[in-house]
Specification:
Structural class: alpha+beta
Number of strands: 12
CATH class of the largest domain: Alpha Beta
Radius of gyration: 19 Å
Strand content: 25-35%
Helix content: 25-40%
Distance between the termini: 32 Å
Mean pLDDT: 95
Number of helices: 8
Low-confidence stretches: none
Shape: globular
Order of helices and strands: EHHEEEHEHEEHHEEEHEHE
Largest sheet: 8 strands, mixed
CATH superfamily of the largest domain: Gcn5-related N-acetyltransferase (GNAT)
Strand order of the largest sheet: 5-12-6-11-10-9-8-7
CATH topology of the largest domain: Aminopeptidase
């Protein structure tokens, strides 16, 4: 049994799409990233050429959009170790479910001699029964539009800096979501004070992203309110699954999302390789 590696997203989806879509919650990153590449072109995430792969012996996949590190699906330690023998030796790191990442990193270090360190851990949640915050803070949720673009770009850039990603494609990220009404802002007195965005639906699943409240507006319940509002809007629009990731180092956000009805599913590790 072997890995199939390709730079063609259509070939990847033909080979791996079936099992990825069968578990859209666990494979949320794979599905949404591949769909973005399919719709917006191979360099939507940067100038490097993407790499995709799937294993013909088990339901396992990998996706890499340089300069980002590869993302692994759930897979056996043997599949992860064999993948570490195939990918480019200059990878910046790797991320994915803990078991897969641990096996990949162990083989990678033996192969390359490069040091590796954990630089973040995330938890995947899916929404159960939505429990909007009570009492709700003053204000209301509104679908963001072109008039909000500059502010959303500023806030999204700040969000990525806070989570350590510093994404250079912030404007493209915002424009893509504005194009399908995928950003809500919470407004008080007619002024935005918080935001949340959604991915496009994929196999009935959407992912809440970039929940951000500027520091001067924090501690007033706006993040919970806008997250509940965008989650309700997603379900009203037909989404069967609403998911999100949290930083495990942030107990505040983990507690908040659980109060809103999000249920923890699995943990993921992000590893950096020494240059």
């Amino acid at each position: 049994m072997a890995w199939h590696i390709t730079g063609d997203v259509e070939e990847f989806l033909a080979g791996a799409g079936g099992f990825l879509r069968a578990r859209p919650v666990q494979n949320t990153l794979m599905l949404t990233i591949a769909e973005a590449v399919r719709m917006q072109g191979p360099h939507v995430y940067g100038p490097g050429d993407p790499v995709f792969g799937w294993h013909d012996g088990e339901d396992a996949a990998v996706l890499c959009t340089p300069p980002r590190a590869p993302v692994l699906s759930a897979m056996s330690p043997d599949a992860a170790a064999s993948l570490a023998e195939l990918l480019d030796a200059d990878l910046p790191g790797v991320s994915g479910p803990d078991v897969a990442v641990d096996a990949f990193v162990a083989r990678w270090r033996r192969r390359t001699g490069r040091a590796a360190k954990v630089h973040g851990r995330q938890r995947l949640y899916r929404l159960g029964e939505l429990a909007p915050p009570t009492p709700q803070p003053p204000g209301e949720a509104k679908v963001a539009g072109a008039r909000d673009r500059d502010l959303l770009v500023e806030w999204t850039a700040a969000f990525f800096r806070e989570v350590g990603e510093d994404d250079p494609e912030v404007a493209q990220f915002v424009d893509a979501r504005l194009s399908y009404g995928g950003v809500l802002v919470w407004e008080t007195g007619g002024a935005p004070v918080s935001m949340a965005s959604l991915t496009r639906p994929e196999s009935g699943m959407v992912r809440v992203q970039a929940v951000f409240t500027p520091p001067q507006h924090r501690g007033r319940g706006y993040a919970g309110a806008v997250t509940a509002a965008i989650s309700r809007a997603a379900r009203d629009a037909g989404a069967t699954e609403v998911v999100l990731f949290t930083d495990l180092a942030n107990p505040t956000s983990n507690a908040l999302y659980q109060r809103l009805g999000f249920i923890p599913l699995e943990d993921r590790t992000m590893v950096e390789f020494a240059s």
